[in-house]
Amino acid sequence: MKIIDNFLDKEHFTRIQSLMMSDRFTWNYSVVDERSYDINDYHFSHVFSPEDTFFGLTLPFIDKIKEYSTISKIIKIKANLQPRTPHNIIQSYHTDFPTDWRNKTAVYYLNTCNGHTLFADETKVESIENRFVMFDGHVEHTGVTCSDEPARFVINFNWYE
């Protein structure tokens, strides 16, 4: 696992954060784990694709990731918005894709809040704006909602090395 603070330069970070946390950015209802029946196991998401109006937002990330990892193929880039809850709620543990030792996963935090990412081995990574955490794709993890901000905003990246 690698944690990188101040991942993007201030200009890119501010531009991306401002847009994604505004009413100009589109979000869709999404279940974290379709096997879960927990009423709180949901968030809103936005999948970036080359045809997407907002795809350009991902380019500074791809360039920066290449400083830390080889990218042979992008699997998926998806933003998640977890609405505030009265107290922190641990959502379902998961891997983003079926276990494959060649893929990498990363979480980028758009805002600072008391939510976090929790890993199956009980490692906890705090949600601090402009933080990037990269790990092997087979590692189970989950998001934990926040109770101190309107929402927790992250971008998930998945790629093959």
Rg over alpha carbons: 15 Å
Main beta sheet strand tally, sense and closure: 7 strands, antiparallel
Terminal-residue CA separation:
15 Å
Number of helices: 2
Strand percent estimate: 35-45%
Mean pLDDT: 91
**Fraction of residues in H or I helices:** 10-25%
List unreliable stretches of 5+ residues.
none
SSE class = mainly beta
Overall number of strands: 10
Widest β-sheet, arrangement of strands:
1-8-5-10-4-3-2
Protein model, in words:
The chain has helices at 10-20, 59-65, and strands at 2-4, 28-31, 42-48, 73-83, 103-109, 116-119, 124-126, 131-136, 141-144, 151-160. A hairpin with a 4-residue loop joins strand 6 (116-119) and strand 7 (124-126). The protein has two helices and ten strands; from the N terminus they run βαββαβββββββ. It has 161 residues and is mainly beta. The strands form two sheets. Strands 1-8-5-10-4-3-2 form a seven-stranded antiparallel sheet, with no helix packed on it. The protein has a three-stranded antiparallel sheet with strand order 7-6-9, with no helix packed on it. The relative contact order is 0.26. The mean pLDDT is 91. Helix content is 11%, strand content 37%. The longest helix has 11 residues, at 10-20.
